[in-house]
Design brief:
The chain is of the alpha/beta class. The chain has one domain: P-loop containing nucleotide triphosphate hydrolases (Rossmann fold), CATH 3.40.50.300. The protein contains six helices and ten strands. The chain has helices at 40-48, 93-103, 108-121, 124-128, 138-150, 168-184; strands spanning 2-11, 14-24, 29-33, 53-60, 63-64, 78-81, 156-160, 189-194, 206-211, 214-220. The strands form two sheets. A six-stranded mixed beta sheet has the order 6-7-8-3-9-10, with helices on both faces. A four-stranded antiparallel beta sheet has the order 2-1-4-5, covered by helices on one side. A hairpin with a 2-residue loop joins strand 4 and strand 5 (63-64). Helix 2 (93-103) packs parallel to helix 5. Mean pLDDT is 92; it is low at 222-226.
Amino acid sequence: MLTFERVDVSIQRIPILRGIDFAVRERETVALVGRNGAGKTTTLRSVMGFTDIVGGRILFQGEDIARVAPHDRPALGIGYAPEDRRLFSRFTVEENVLLPARVAKLDASETQRRLARIYEVLPELRDLGPRPAGSVSGGQGKMVALGRALMLATRLLLLDEPFQGLAPVLANRYAEALGRLRDLAPEIAVIITESNPALLRRFAERTVTVERGAIASDETASIAAA
């Protein structure tokens, strides 16, 4: 489904990714792990078109994604939840979740179908829906960001450090939501970045480790079997 072929990325002429080379299959959940600054976030941002690829290419469904403008990539079925959430504080929680549907010009029936699935995965968002997004806690904001990404993720979901800063109770609830997502929508491939791979052992089939912008290891089922 998603293939990195010797991808190099530089930011202000400083190399960040060096020959990134791995693939994610359909229906697969992959943990992309490594220390802070290893290149995990840059890898996800490159899928979304937010970096300049100076070497190699990224294929999605066999096509070079460079041919697709960044603002058109969500329409491919890719949902992205960045580490910093990026919620619109003056909008309600539900308006934040629905915003991608409006941008993608989904019709009303498809929007409601996807919203119903989001509420199955994240039932707390139904109660939070009328609240201004600026009033929710940081942990709740992570849930809102996940719901918003799920509005577009029909093929691939990218989650950047979703557990960072979460209290244990909220981390468990987030993990439970990911478990429900796997049950309800197993067709969606998921890439989750994380500094602590132990947090992902319940649902990641593969662990890809990034060190200094390069792939250090690619281990099948190492987390799931731990």
